[in-house]
Structure formats: C-alpha cells, structure tokens
Amino acid sequence: MQKLSFSLDGEYVELNQLLKLVGLCESGGAGKAIVASGDVSVDGEQELRKTAKIRAGQVVSLGDIEIRVQAG
Q1: Is the pTM of this model over 0.90?
Q2: Residue 72 has pLDDT above 90, yes or no
Q3: Which helix H or strand E contains 69, and what residues bound it?
Q4: Would you call 39 helix, strand, or coil by DSSP?
Q5: Cα angle vertex 42, ends 13, 14, to 5°?
Q6: In which band, very low, low, confident or very high, does the pLDDT at 22 lie, cut at 50, 70 and 90?
Q7: What is the dihedral of CA 63, 44, 46, 10, to 10 degrees?
Q8: DSSP letters along 4-31, please?
Q9: Closest alpha carbon to 15 in 36, 39, 37, 32
Q10: Cα dihedral sign for 53, 57, 61, 67?
Q11: What does pLDDT average to over the chain?
C-alpha cells in the first residue's frame, strides 16, 4: 500500500481537490469522476460526495493508495 501525507492549510479541503493536489488526477473534474465511480473511501466508508469536506485527521483511500490528512 502506498501511503501519502497531505498537509492541510485551512479548515478543510474538498475531496475532488485533494485527489488533484496529491497528484492522483489532472484536474478537479477528473477528481469528481473518480469519486463518482465509488472507488474512494474516507475513514473506511465509501464516499460519493464529490466535494465532501476532508479535515485534518481523516484518511482517504483510493485503491491501494492511502492519503493521511494532517493539520498544516
């Protein structure tokens, strides 16, 4: 499993933007498509809301990639 860390600057980041910012897709629109496919989970639960607010302490998973969101 590939583990990535993301340092959060504000209160939250939208899920589709997070996928873009860590380099898993080219754009926010592509991030929305990935979320809509049902392949993304947040804290172990499937997440279908494309702009779900991801906050520090949460873990986002896509396939064998795990993104840990930390306070910046």
Answers
A1: yes
A2: no
A3: strand 65-71
A4: coil
A5: 15
A6: very high
A7: -90
A8: EEEEE-SS-EEHHHHHHHTTSSSSHHHH
A9: 32
A10: positive
A11: 97
